[in-house]
C-alpha cells in the first residue's frame, strides 16, 4: 500500500497513479460491519439506485478490509452543465453575480469556464441535497446512510506537487497563487491562505518595530503599546476591506446569503411560509434562544474547570519554585508543567466535544450559523487556555503576590502529611519573580508555537505510520490473504491503492488553522508589550506555518470539499475583540510595570487604582476613536475589487437601459420650441379670454392658454419686466421722499 | 393679499382659490432688480427657452413688486411617463426596486400609479439636472440663474386642511397617515414624522416609569438609570429596524445609493473614470480631508466661545445668587440669564453659518454627504449649547465648588471698581446649592421646551404679520398704484394672490426639527436620572410638537420638494452617541449624588476616584454588552417590511428561473437507471477487459466500463459485501487465536 507521505518520490509507477483521477468526481467510502451485512447490503443497493437516479455513473471496488469504495462521476455532461448554469443563475438572482449568465449556455461556459472547485462543489451538492430538490439525498453517517463513512473528492496530485514545490521557493503568495488555491480547494480554504498571507505581510511591521523597540525602548514601553495597538486596528480594518475585495474578485460576494441547509437540522413542524408559500421547516427561535443560554453555564464551567486547573498549577509552581527549598526541587519544578501539558489538551478536547454537542443542541438550520455558533464557543475555550495564565501572572501574581502567597502554605501542610517525618518542609523567603511575566510570554509566543508546529506536522505522520504498521502486521498475521474474487486490475492497482490511502486520511478542518492564527494575533495584541520580540517570533513561525498548512492539505488530509465563503466569517469578530482588549491590557501593563520602581518584594509600588482605571479608560476610548477615524479613511480608498464591481454593474446597467428604452429618451415635447407663436397684443388676449368664456373652458385650461408657446411667455415676461422698473422707480421716489423728510 | 394664516377660514371665494393648483407643477420666483433689468431680461429669455426645450409649458405672471412668477408644468404626458418609467427602471437597476417595472409602460403605470410626491420630485429633477442629462439645468441663485429666487411646488391645501383637521382629533399616526404624508411631501419628511411618532410612542414608557420612579425611588436612583439606559438601547435598536422596514414598505430601501449631485460642487478636473469610462468630476479626497481637519479648530472654537460664555455666566450667576448679598440682588440674578438668552442664539446662528461655510468649503459631490457633514457640525454646536451648562453643574460646580468659589472674588473686585464707595460688596457665606442641578435640568426639559415651542409657532407668525403690514403701508404710501398692464384676470385673482403669499414663505428645513428631537433625546438619556419626570414633560411636548410641525409645513412654509430618503441619515449616529454617553453620565451622576450624605458645604463627601471610574467603566461596558445582545435578539425578529421584501424577491426569482430554464431541470441522464444491464459473470468481465485492451481503450474509459449501469454496480457490490464477511471472519479467527495465546 502506497503511503502518501512518500508520494512525491521519483517512482515512475507511482507518478502514473498520481497523474490521473480516472475522471472520478467523488469517492464514497462505504463501511460494511461484519455483523450488519444484510442491512448494509440493502442500504448499498439503495445508495447505488439513488446515485443512478440522480444521474451518476458508479463503479464499486473493495476498500479496506471491511469497506467498499464507490466511485462516482456525473454521467451526462448535460446534467453537469445544467447544474452549473442553474447555480450561476441563482447567484445572479441573489446578487452575487452582477451580470446574468449568457442565455446561450454553451457560449456562457466558454466565456466563464468551470473551475474544478465549482464542479466538485456542485457535484457534492447533487449527491447530498434532498431528493425533492433533485439531489441524491445522501448524508454521510445519517439515517439510511449510516454506513456511508465519507464522501470525498480525490486530490489532484499533479497540482499539489507543483504547488508545494513552487511554494517552498518563494516568500509570499500573490493573487494568482490565491486564485489557484481557490480554483482547486474552494474559496473557504483560499480565504484562509489569503488571511494568513495578509497577516504575515502585516507582521513585518511589528517584527521590525518590535525589534527596534526591544533594542531602544525596552519592555513595557507606552510608545510600543500605542504603535502596536494602532497596528492591530490598521490590520483589522485592512483585512475587512481586503476580504470584501477578494470576495468580489472571486465572484463570491454575498455568497453567504445562499445558506447551505444543515441536514442534521431537526424541525418541529413544516409550515407554509407566509411570504413565499414555500414549505419551510420551522424550529422555534425562542426554544433555540433558551438552549443558547446554556452557553452561559458552559462558559462559566470552562472558566471554572480550566481556570482552577491553571490556577492550582500556577500556585503549585510558585510554591515549588519560589518558596519551597527542599530536596528534588529541580525535578518538582516540572510537576505543574507536566500536569498542564497532560491535562489541558485532554480537557480541551473534552470541552470542545461538549461545545460541539451544545451547538448541535442549538439546532441550526444552516451550516454557516452552526459553524459560527461553534466557533464562538471554541473561541471562549481557547481564550481561557491561551491567555488566562498570563492574565494571572500580570494582574494577580505580581500585584497581589504578597497578599496571596501565605495561602500557599496549604501545599506545605498537605505535603507534610505525606512525608514520614512530619517536620516542616524547608522553605525560603518568598520573592516575587519579576521575570516571570516575561518568561511566560516568551514561553507562549516562542516555545509553545514551536511545540505546536511540531505536533501538527509530526503527530499525524507518526500516527499514520503506526496505523499502517498495525494494519500490515494484522494482514500478515492472517493465515491466508483475504479472499478477493475481484482482484484489482493491473491498470488500476496503483490508483486504487492511492485512493485507499486517501480514504484513510483525516478530514481537513480549516477552523483549526484559523484558531491558531487568531490566538497568535491575540498574543500580539494583548501581551506583546511585555516582550516586543513577539512579532519576530510570529513572523518566522508563520512562514513555516503557511507551508506546513499547505502540506497538511495536500498530503496529510483528504481533499476538502471546495466550499464557497465570502469572508473568514465568525473569526472576524474574534479579531475585533482581541484588538479591542489589547488596548486595555497593554495600557494596564504599561501603567503597572513601566515604572520599574518595584518595591522590595518585586510588586509595583505606588499603583493607584484611579490612575490605573483612568489609563485604561483613556486608552480604550482613544482606541475607539482611532478605529472610527481609520474606518473613515479606509472607506475613502478605492479598492480594485470594488472598482471591478462598479465596472460590471455599470456595464450591466447601461446594456439594460439601452435595451429597454433605446435612444428615444430625449424625445422632446415637440411644438413647444421657442420659434413660432403668433404676435400677441392685449386685444388678442382679451379676445381669447372672451372666446374661452363662451366655449366654457375651465379655469385651468384658460390659465395655460393665456400664453401659447414659449415665445409668448417671453414676450409677456419682457413686458412685465419693464413694468418692474416702473414700480421700482416709483418706490425709489417714495423712499427718497421719506429720507428727505427724516 | 390673502394671508395663509387665515386660509382655513370659511370664505368660499378663498376656498375656491385653494381647491385647485391649476395643474401647475412648479412655480419659479424670478427676481428682477431694478438696476439689472437688462441682464434679468436676457436671463429670463434663456430660462423660458431652457424650460421649453426640456418640455415644459410656461406661463408668466407678475409676482411681488420686483419679481415675476413663472408657472411651469410638463407639457407632454409622454415625457412625464417616460421620466417616471426611466427612474423606476434605474431604481430596479440599483436594487431599490426588487421587481423590474413591466415592459408595457401603460400597464405598469396602472399597476403602480404615480404619487404626487414622485411626480413632483421627477419634475424638479427635470428642471434642475444638467442639460446633457436631459434636464433644463436651472439651479436657483447660481451663475446664469442668479435671478431665480426659488423653485417651489404649490401646496395641496385641500389635503393639508384635512390632514390638520384629522390630526388634531387623533392621538397617534398610523401607517396610512405616514403613507399619505409620504405621497404628498416625500419620504424625507415622512421619515421625520415616522421618527417622531415612534419616539413619542416609546416615550410613554419612560414617562410612566419615570413618574413611578419619581414617586417611589426619588432622584439619582441606580435602578432608574439602568432602566432608562436599557430604554435608550431598545429605542435605538428598534428604530434602526423600523427605519429599514419603512424604507422597504415605501419602496426606497437603498435610495441613498442614487446620490443627488450637488450643483455647487466644484471639481478640480474632469477625468475619465477608469472603471466606467464615464466622464466624472474629480476633487482630490486628500484636499477635502485637509479641509475637513478644519473641523477640529472649529469644534475647539465652538467649545471655547460658547463654553467661556456659559462658564462666565455660570460664574456670575453663582456669585450673584450664592455669594453676593447686596442691594438689587433680585434683579441682578437675572443678568446671566439675560446675557445667555441674548447671546446664545446670536452666537449659535453665527456659528451655524460658519459651519455651513465650512461644509461648503469641504466641497462634497453629493447633497447627502454635504448634509451629513453639516449635521455633524451642528450636532457639536447643539451639544455644547444644550448640555454644557448641566455638565458644569454636575461635574464641576457641585464636586469642586469649594475649591473654585474663592476665585469668584474677581467679580467682587471688578464690581468694586464701579461702585463709588470702593468699600467691599456685601457677601454671604458661600453654600453649594444642592438643588441647582435639579432646577437646571427642569429648566432645560420643561421651561426651555415650552419657550422653544412658543418661539417656533409665534415668531414666524409675528414676523409675517409685521412684514405684511410694512408692505401694505409701503404700497399705500406710494402716490399711485403701480402700473400693471396685465392685471390679474378675474378667474385667477385669488389663485395668484395665494401663490404670491406662498412664494414669500420660508423654505422648510427638516433638519431643524430633527435637531430638536435629538437634543431632547439627549436630555432624556444623559440627565433624566436627575429628574425622572423628564419623560412626562417630553411626552406632552411632543404631542404638541407633532401638530405644530404639521402646521409649520402646511401653512408656515413653502411646500418642500418631496425628496426621497431611506433613513433619518446622520442623526442616527447622533442618537447612538447620546445613548452611549448616557450610560456614562447616568452612572457617574448616580454614584456622585445617590448617597445624599452631603458634607456641610453640600458637596458629595467620600467620593473616591477609583470607585467613580470603576462605576463608569462597569456601566459603559454593561451598556455595550446589552447593546450587542439586544441587537442579536432584534435581528431574530421578522419584520413586515423584510417579509415583504423576501416575498417579492422570491416571486421574482421564481419567475425568472422558470422563464429561462423551464422544467427540464430534472432531465435525468437516461440509460443510467437501475433496470436493464446485462447479467454479468466474471468471465464476461474478463472478456470485456481483454476486448478493451485490444481496442486500446484508455485506462479511464476501461475503469468506467467495468460496471455498466447501476445494476451491475449493485451486483458486484453485493459480491464484495459478501467477501467482507469472509475477510472479517478470517481476522476474527486470527484475533481469537491471539487472545487464546495470551
UniProtKB/TrEMBL annotation, chains A, B:
Anoctamin alpha-beta plait domain: residues covered: 23-148
Taxonomic superkingdom: Eukaryota
Domain called Anoctamin transmembrane: residue spans: 181-648
Main location: membrane
The keyword Transmembrane helix belongs to this UniProt entry's keyword annotation: yes
Topology class, membrane: Multi-pass membrane protein
InterPro entries hit by this protein: Anoctamin, Anoctamin_N_fung, Anoctamin_TM
Pfam families named in the record: Anoctamin, Anoctamin_N
Keywords for this protein: Membrane, Transmembrane, Transmembrane helix
One Gene Ontology term, aspect cellular component: cortical endoplasmic reticulum
GO molecular function: chloride channel activity
Protein known as: Plasma membrane channel protein
Organism in which the protein naturally occurs: Coniochaeta pulveracea
Amino acid at each position: 500500500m502506497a503511503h502518501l507521505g512518500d508520494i512525491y518520490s521519483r517512482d515512475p509507477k507511482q507518478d502514473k497513479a498520481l497523474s490521473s483521477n480516472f475522471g472520478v468526481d467523488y469517492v464514497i467510502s462505504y463501511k460494511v460491519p461484519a455483523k450488519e451485512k444484510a442491512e448494509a447490503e440493502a442500504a448499498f443497493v439503495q445508495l447505488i439506485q439513488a446515485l443512478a437516479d440522480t444521474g451518476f455513473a458508479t463503479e464499486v471496488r473493495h476498500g479496506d478490509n471491511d469497506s467498499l469504495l464507490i466511485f462516482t462521476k456525473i454521467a451526462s455532461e448535460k446534467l453537469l452543465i445544467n447544474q452549473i448554469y442553474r447555480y450561476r443563475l441563482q447567484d445572479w438572482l441573489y446578487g452575487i453575480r452582477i451580470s446574468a449568465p449568457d442565455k446561450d449556455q454553451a457560449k456562457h461556459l466558454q466565456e466563464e469556464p468551470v473551475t474544478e472547485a465549482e464542479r466538485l462543489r456542485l457535484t457534492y451538492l447533487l449527491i447530498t441535497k434532498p431528493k425533492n430538490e433533485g439531489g441524491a439525498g445522501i448524508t454521510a453517517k445519517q439515517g439510511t446512510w449510516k454506513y456511508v463513512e465519507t464522501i470525498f473528492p480525490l486530490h489532484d496530485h499533479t497540482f499539489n506537487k507543483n504547488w508545494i514545490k513552487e511554494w517552498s521557493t518563494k516568500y509570499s503568495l500573490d493573487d494568482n497563487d490565491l486564485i489557484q488555491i481557490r480554483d482547486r480547494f474552494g474559496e473557504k480554504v483560499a480565504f484562509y491562505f489569503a488571511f494568513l498571507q495578509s497577516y504575515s505581510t502585516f507582521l513585518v511591521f511589528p517584527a521590525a518595530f518590535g525589534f527596534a523597540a526591544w533594542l531602544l525602548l525596552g519592555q513595557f514601553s507606552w510608545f510600543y503599546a500605542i504603535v502596536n495597538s494602532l497596528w492591530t486596528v490598521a490590520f483589522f480594518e485592512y483585512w475587512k476591506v481586503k476580504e470584501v475585495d477578494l470576495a468580489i474578485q472571486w465572484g463570491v460576494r454575498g455568497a453567504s446569503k445562499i445558506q447551505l441547509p444543515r441536514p442534521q437540522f431537526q424541525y418541529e413542524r413544516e409550515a407554509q411560509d407566509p411570504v413565499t408559500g414555500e414549505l419551510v421547516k420551522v424550529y422555534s427561535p425562542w426554544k433555540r434562544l433558551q438552549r443558547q443560554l446554556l452557553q452561559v453555564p458552559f462558559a462559566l464551567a470552562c472558566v471554572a474547570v480550566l481556570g482552577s486547573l491553571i490556577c492550582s498549577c500556577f500556585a503549585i509552581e510558585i510554591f515549588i519554585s519560589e518558596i519551597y527549598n527542599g530536596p528534588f526541587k529541580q525535578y518538582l519544578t516540572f510537576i505543574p508543567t507536566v500536569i498542564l501539558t497532560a491535562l489541558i489538551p485532554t480537557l480541551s478536547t473534552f470541552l470542545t466535544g461538549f461545545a460541539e454537542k451544545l451547538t448541535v443542541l442549538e439546532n441550526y438550520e444552516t451550516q454557516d450559523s452552526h459553524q459560527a455558533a461553534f466557533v464562538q464557543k471554541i473561541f471562549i475555550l481557547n481564550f481561557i487556555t491561551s491567555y488566562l495564565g498570563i492574565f494571572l501572572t500580570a494582574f494577580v501574581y505580581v500585584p497581589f503576590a504578597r497578599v496571596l502567597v501565605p495561602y500557599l502554605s496549604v501545599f506545605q501542610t498537605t505535603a507534610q502529611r505525606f512525608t514520614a517525618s512530619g517536620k516542616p518542609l524547608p522553605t525560603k523567603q518568598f520573592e516575587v519573580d519579576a521575570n516571570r511575566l516575561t518568561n511566560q510570554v516568551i514561553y507562549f509566543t516562542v516555545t509553545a508555537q514551536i511545540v505546536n508546529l511540531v505536533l501538527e506536522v509530526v503527530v499525524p505522520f507518526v500516527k499514520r505510520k503506526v496505523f499502517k504498521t498495525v494494519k500490515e502486521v494484522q494482514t500478515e498475521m492472517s493465515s491466508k490473504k483475504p479472499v478477493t474474487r475481484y482482484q484489482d486490475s493491473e491498470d488500476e492497482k496503483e490508483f486504487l491503492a492511492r485512493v485507499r490511502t486517501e480514504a484513510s486520511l483525516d478530514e481537513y478542518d480549516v477552523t483549526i488553522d484559523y484558531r491558531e492564527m487568531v490566538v497568535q494575533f491575540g498574543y500580539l495584541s494583548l501581551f506583546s508589550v511585555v516582550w516586543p520580540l513577539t512579532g519576530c517570533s510570529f513572523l518566522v513561525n508563520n512562514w513555516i506555518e503557511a507551508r506546513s498548512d499547505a502540506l497538511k492539505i495536500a498530503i496529510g488530509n483528504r481533499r476538502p470539499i471546495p466550499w464557497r465563503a465570502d469572508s473568514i466569517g465568525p473569526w472576524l469578530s474574534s479579531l475585533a475583540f482581541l484588538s479591542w482588549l489589547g488596548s486595555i491590557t497593554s495600557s494596564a501593563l504599561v501603567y503597572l510595570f513601566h515604572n520599574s520602581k518595584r518595591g522590595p518584594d518585586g510588586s509595583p509600588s505606588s499603583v493607584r487604582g484611579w490612575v490605573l482605571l483612568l489609563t485604561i479608560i483613556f486608552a480604550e476610548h482613544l482606541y475607539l476613536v482611532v478605529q472610527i477615524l481609520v474606518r473613515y479613511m479606509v472607506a475613502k480608498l478605492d479598492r480594485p475589487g470594488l472598482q471591478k464591481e462598479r465596472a460590471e454593474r455599470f456595464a450591466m446597467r447601461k446594456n439594460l437601459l439601452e435595451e429597454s428604452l433605446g435612444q428615444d429618451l430625449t424625445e422632446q415635447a415637440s411644438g413647444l420650441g421657442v420659434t413660432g407663436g403668433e404676435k400677441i397684443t392685449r386685444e388678442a388676449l382679451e379676445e381669447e379670454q372672451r372666446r374661452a368664456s363662451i366655449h366654457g373652458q375651465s379655469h385651468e385650461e384658460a390659465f395655460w392658454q393665456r400664453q401659447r408657446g414659449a415665445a409668448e411667455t417671453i414676450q409677456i415676461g419682457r413686458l412685465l419686466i419693464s413694468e418692474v422698473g416702473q414700480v421700482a422707480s416709483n418706490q425709489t421716489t417714495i423712499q427718497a421722499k421719506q429720507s428727505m423728510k427724516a
